[in-house]
Amino acid sequence: MRLEHIAFNVDDVAGLAAWYGANFDMKIVRAFEEPPYIHFLSDSAGKSLIEIYSNPLGEVIDYAAQHAVTFHLAFAVDDIEAERQRLVAAGATLDGDIDHRANGDKLAFLRDPWGHAIQLVQRVNRMID
């Protein structure tokens, strides 16, 4: 058994899908243009998915009001400083400083234009490929 996807209910499915596609090299692998506008986005390796939709059956959590450790999407990067700058130029906002861990890993939180928490992770030794 393996994890297929993680899903979350959002207000702006099309905008979110486009922004993550443009800024994280995510690909829309399935999209429905009728409510609840389900979109599946794959990572650049094609090994993990996020599902976003706008479904009135469930609550749209105010992710922006939550601390970043409550819920975030984490992305592996090779140059955390450059990626932070690039994402801020694309509309993200910083949420704290870069955390330099004792083992050499670097972690940093940002917020996408809708307030969802993003974590950038530059690891000394990658945990998965």
Describe the protein.
- The strands form two sheets. Strands 5, 6, 7, 8 and 9 form a five-stranded mixed sheet that branches. Strands 1-4-3-2 form a four-stranded mixed sheet, with helices on one face.
- Helices cover 17% and strands 30% of the residues.
- A hairpin with a 5-residue loop joins strand 7 and strand 8.
- The chain is an alpha+beta fold.
What is the count of helical runs? 2
**Average pLDDT level:** 96
User: Over all CA atoms, what is the radius of gyration?
Assistant: 15 Å
Helix content: 10-25%
Shape: globular
Tell me the structural class: alpha+beta
Largest sheet: 5 strands, mixed
Distance between the termini: 17 Å
The total of beta strands comes to 9
The percent range for strand residues is 25-35%
Low-confidence stretches: none
H/E element order = EHEEEEHEEEE
Write the layout of secondary structure elements.
Elements: E1 5-9, H1 13-24, E2 27-31, E3 39-42, E4 49-53, E5 73-76, H2 80-89, E6 93-94, E7 99-100, E8 106-111, E9 117-122
